[in-house]
Amino acid sequence: MTATDLVKPVLGGASVLVAQGDSDGSVALTAVLRLNGFNAREARTEEDVLTVVRETGPAVLVVDLDLPGVDGCTLIRRVRRLPNPPAVLVVTAHTAPGVRRAATEAGAVAYLPEAG
User: What Rg, from alpha-carbon coordinates, does the chain have?
Assistant: First the structure.
């Protein structure tokens, strides 16, 4: 059980995997998604992301490029190579055009800068 399990149980909406290294941000985003009817889960490492994607097949992966121990673009490429990969949405503090381009080329369908 995680902190987000206390906010609201999973309602059965679209499946979303939140992958952020920052635990506060991850808990908050997962909670907001659950409160809005999404079946949201968290992962904080590359291994967890790949395992959850393989086992549960989320429709969307919301990923921060600063996940510990892995380059975000590398993770996006690995996820996109899996069978039936989720759409990848990048939410990050990186705002440089080169980073945005790299994430898009890796397979992200959208890139949203975090509020600083």
Answer: 13
pTM of the prediction? 0.87
CA distance 112 to 114: 6
Partnered with residue 90 across adjacent β-strands are 63, 111
pLDDT per position as a tens digit, 81-108: 999 999 999 998 888 899 999 999 999 9
- Tell me the β-bridge partners of 88: 61
Distance CA 37, CA 97 (A): 33
Stretch (H or E) spanning 78: helix 72-80
**H or E, element range at 62:** strand 60-63
Q: Rounded to an integer, what distance in angstroms lies between the CA atom of residue 47 and that of residue 96?
A: 27
Structure tokens that stand for 88 in this block: 């990848």
What tokens does 112 get? 């949203």
